[in-house]
Amino acid sequence: MIDPQIQEELRAKLLEEKQRLEKTLSQTEANKKTDREYETKFPEVDRDEEANADEMDMYENNLAADEAMKSELEKVEKALASMDKGTYGICRNCQKEIPLERLRAYPQADTCIDCEGK
Question: Cβ neighbours of residue 47 under 8 Å, at least 6 residues apart?
C-alpha cells in the first residue's frame, strides 16, 4: 500500500501531466479540420515533389504525436481513477505492487517492470 502522502505527491504529478497534455492537445485542435484529420495544403501538387513530401512527413508526424498524446492522457486519467478506487500502484497483470521508484518515474504506470517487459 502506498503511503497517503506519497500518493498525493503522485496525484499532483498526474494532474500536472494531465493539464500539460490537455493544453498541448487543445493547441493541435486548431490545426485540424476534423477529428483525427490534420489540414494539409498541396497548392502546387506535382510541381514541387520535395515540398509535397515534406508536408506529408509533417502531417504524419503531427498525427502520430497527437495519437501518442491522446494515449498518454488516457493512461493518466486511468491512473487518477485507480487512485479514487484504491487500486493505484497494483499491476493490472500480476496484481503485485508496482515499485515506488517506477511510480515516481512514471506515475501513470499500470504494470510492474516484469509485466511491462512481457
Answer: none
